[in-house]
Amino acid sequence: MKPLSPYRVVEIGSLPAASYAARLFADFGAEVVKVEPPGGDPLRESDGRWFAYLNYGKKSVTSDNVVESADLLIDSTGGVRTAPIVIDLSWFGRSGPYAGYATNDAVCRALAGFVQLIGPVDGPPLTLPDYQSAIMGGLAAFIPATASLLAGESRRWEVSVHEAAIALAEYQAIEAWATGTPQQRWGFNRFTPTYPMGVYPCREGFIGITIVTPVQWRNFCELMGMADLARDAKLVMGPERLARAAELEARFVPRFLDRTAAEWFAAALELRLPFAIVPDMKEMLSWPVFRERNAIVPIQMGDTTVEAPGCPFHLTRTPANFGGIVPAIGEHASTIATHRTAATQPSSGRPLEGMRIVDLSMGWAGPICTRNLSDLGADVIKIEACGYPDWWRGVDNRLETVTERLYEKSPRFNILNRNKRAITLDLTQPAGVALAKRLVAKADAVIENYSSDVLRKFGLDYTALAGVNPSVVMVSMAAFGARGPWSETRAYGSTLEQGSGLPRLGGRPGDPPMMNHLAYGDAVGGLNACSAMLIALLHRKSTGEGQHIDLSQVQCMLPFTAPWAIEQSATGKVTPRAGNRHPRHVPHGVFPATGSDRWIFVAATDDAMWVALARIIGLDDAALATATARRAQEDRVEDAIAGWTAQRSADEAMAILQQAGVAAGAVRHPLDLIDDPHLAARGFWQWSDRPISGRHPQPSPPYRDADRPIAVRAPAATLGQYNEDVLVGLLGLTPAELQELRQTGVIGTEALPPSQRKSRAMTG
Predict the structure, then answer these.
(1) Domain of 642: which CATH number?
(2) Any domain includes 503
(3) What domain range is 597 assigned to?
(4) Which of these, 71, 88, 207, lies nearest to 151 by C-alpha position?
(5) pLDDT, tens digit, for every residue of 625-671?
(6) Which helix (H) or strand (E) segment is 51 a member of?
(7) CB distance 527 to 165 below 8 Å
(8) Can you give the pLDDT at residue 763?
(9) Does residue 606 lie within any of the structural domains?
């Protein structure tokens, strides 16, 4: 039996994020009933491939009477319908200045700080035309909905797609807040603070690279035949290398032409370097690394069957459905049986209260998973080591950094690790491993994102942990999964995007493949891990069975490519890249505003919206009445818009256009989000006080209980802050035993100085 088969999910409305959330429920056995208007969801006609991806495996009806029988209602209509669990999903939430704004996917991303830093230095910023915010919003809806099913509680959640997209910009926002300086746009294949990082042509294909640590830089120089650069003391860290990017690229970019992308990737595996072959859609659909995991699935659209990325959650005991059928309009109107909703109780507290998660993850991906779980009430116990703290505390191991505890001031660590109990255990010592196993014995789930062989060496892999807790759910987060020839791939969030093929789809004709984010895959992988864990916990609740979730973080990025993949499957090709222009909407792009590097995104998503826009910019020409006609004069249309926007601030232009019902949004710097008026009105930023680092902002989850943000309960813990609380209070150790652990270095509350780290540090 599928984990969600007891539930009926009703989806009403046409927001793509709502459709994606509902599709995920269908993937794991829920009866998902899509309520469409008599003429069908408008997306059927405007973008049939995207509709197919979002809606396969569902039933379709044209009457909303079925709402009364829902266990879970996903509603994007803005209505007041009721069900035991309701997800009220909208672009900007139900309150705040943007609540009624006209928008589309790209405009939403612009306002979420997800566009400004991508593209050429002089602008305009560039972004993919569509299909991105919907996936983020769908995951943001799925997580609280599944948590409520797990709790068996009735609850109403309000979810904002805009705030869901901010998960990809919050790291840059908080880093810029800490320094008071917004990041700049460095151009294609250049990102601060890491360099080199980008996509480069090879003799055949493209290779994606990410070089962060001094060791990686030395190995990269060895691989590229640049030993002299490895010895240059002024090139040790990324910012130093970025300042000399043109000089360095003159050395290494031509070298990539000596070999194929596959050959460079194989060489990088030997040196443990984070490289990835960047596939086109034909390659992505055919790669054994995806097909052997059932990551590519068949979707039946009428008489046609196409292939596309499937559900990215790889649950070993309860796998997702393998593709499905796209329903015809109202096809199931006469076949929907009477359904009695599952019993629920009124909500009290947070839905995951009573759950315990052992967190062995570090960086961004794993911690954003457990942040969501802790926000929803789970007791998250985060395990670090004094010789190997979470690398998001900082990777600068110089003596003064350690002695002054500067690793406690990392803004990005602090926003990812709130509400958790952090302890230290040296897992290179048997006593540390034994205590970790005792914690797992009392836990519901474990998450880790080490390289695939690290925990096995410590005796903490799934087989070992299931031996002490057979019902435990464990999530592992390797780049390409825990098995197979690419399981040892070292990866950052950038590597994950590169490996998905997404960079091959963005940019203008003639541009190099365009990465869409500094580390797109990190937040995405974490949200998928959280979703998968909750499904496994639902299965465990009904059966008592635990399981291993072998998550491929690259696979988690594939849904963002889905419409292009379907196009490739159906036609054998993909529509050429067109920068910010949209395949259907004209105009659609980024235009200059007053101020240095200030921009606004403007889109006419239908002909009526164009009429309003044309009147404002003074281009009221009957010959431009249709999108087809405007496409033939797109340069003229864009010039007229740019002439008008260049005379106004982005916020002024946005206000005027939105007043007329035109989809427009200021292209926010991530730093702008801290003072964004809409986020301020919604109380999105909460403030925490923390020892050593002081007062700092915390982003709220994109889902809120009714109309209130979920409160941040506690700031991120300092290193080992909860050692006594957990080891004595939970495991029952005596004070004498705790003192012995301190003396032997199994636990502690300060990072070890560099001279003492070598013998203790874990590698992965």
Answers:
(1) 3.30.1540.10
(2) no
(3) 585-677
(4) 71
(5) 999 999 999 999 999 999 999 999 999 999 999 999 999 999 999 99
(6) helix 48-55
(7) no
(8) 32
(9) yes
Given 677, 710, 745, which residue is the final one in a domain?
Answer: 677
Six-digit token pair at 636? 């003229």
**219, part of any domain:** no
Contact by Cβ (8 Å): 185, 367: no
Q: Find where tokens 């291993």 sit.
A: 548
Please indicate whether residue 620 is annotated as part of the active site. no
Q: Is the dihedral of CA 672, 677, 679, 683 positive or negative?
A: positive
Distance CA 249, CA 246 (A): 5
Does some domain include residue 145?
Answer: yes
Parallel, antiparallel or unpaired: strands 421-424 and 31-35: unpaired
Report angle CA 540, 542, 543 to the nearest 5 degrees.
65
- Read off φ and ψ for residue 295, nearest 5 degrees: -80, -20
- Indicate which CATH number applies to the domain containing 49: 3.40.50.10540
Number of structural domains (the chain) is 2
CA dihedral 265, 269, 271, 277 (to 10 degrees): 30
**Percentage above 90 pLDDT, the chain:** 90
Summarize pLDDT for 416-452 with one digit per residue, the tens: 999 999 999 999 999 999 999 999 999 999 999 987 7
Q: How many CB atoms lie within 10 A of CB 303?
A: 5
Could you give the CA distance from residue 743 to residue 488 in angstroms, rounded to a whole number? 35
Q: Which two tokens stand for residue 579?
A: 């920068």
Q: Which of 307, 275, 312 is nearest to 295 (CA)?
A: 312
Which residues have CB under 8 Å from 341's CB, separation 6+?
Answer: 8, 69, 70, 71, 83, 84
- Of 655, 677, 699, the one marking the end of a domain is 677
User: Rounded to whole angstroms, how far apart are CA atoms 481 and 549?
Assistant: 10
- Flag whether pLDDT at 396 surpasses 90: no
Place of tokens 């990017």: 245
Selected catalytic residue, list 461, 522, 672, 705: 522
